[in-house]
Amino acid sequence: MQRVCFVLRVKPDRLEEYRERHRNVWPEMQQALRETGWHNYSLFLSDDGLLVGYLETEDFEAAKAGMAQREVNRRWQAEMAPFFENLESGAADTDMRPLDEVFHLD
Fold it and tell me: Matching Pfam families, A to Z (predicted)?
């Protein structure tokens, strides 16, 4: 199982709305994540906009590719893109920057 941690940055003036949107993630989006191999997935948001994501998956590239094929993901990404700073591709799911794991205590 791969452990993946990534970072993005949410615009400071959109923090509360971002939090609210994630209290009510669409059920079909949650199902698509499960079906494409996203497990133990969490997002953490600091007051300065730093967003840290963590998930476990068999194959991160395959999990991202699976979501890229889902219509619900395209809708979600389009709605969420305005919340983020400096998206090069225009979508958070393709701009997330994975971090190198340097230590793990099992």
Answer: rhaM
Active site annotation includes 22: yes
Domains and CATH numbers, the chain: 2-98 (3.30.70.100)
Cα dihedral angle (72, 53, 41, 81), rounded to 10 degrees? -10
- Spatial neighbors of 61 by CB under 8 A, at least 6 apart, are none
Q: Running DSSP on this structure, what letter comes out for residue 93?
A: H
Q: Are the C-beta atoms of residues 41 and 5 closer than 8 Å to each other?
A: no
What is the pTM for the complete model shown? 0.91
> Of these residues, 7, 12, 17, 22, which one is catalytic?
22
pLDDT tens-digit readout, 35-62? 999 999 999 999 999 999 999 999 999 9
What is the SS3 assignment for 24? coil
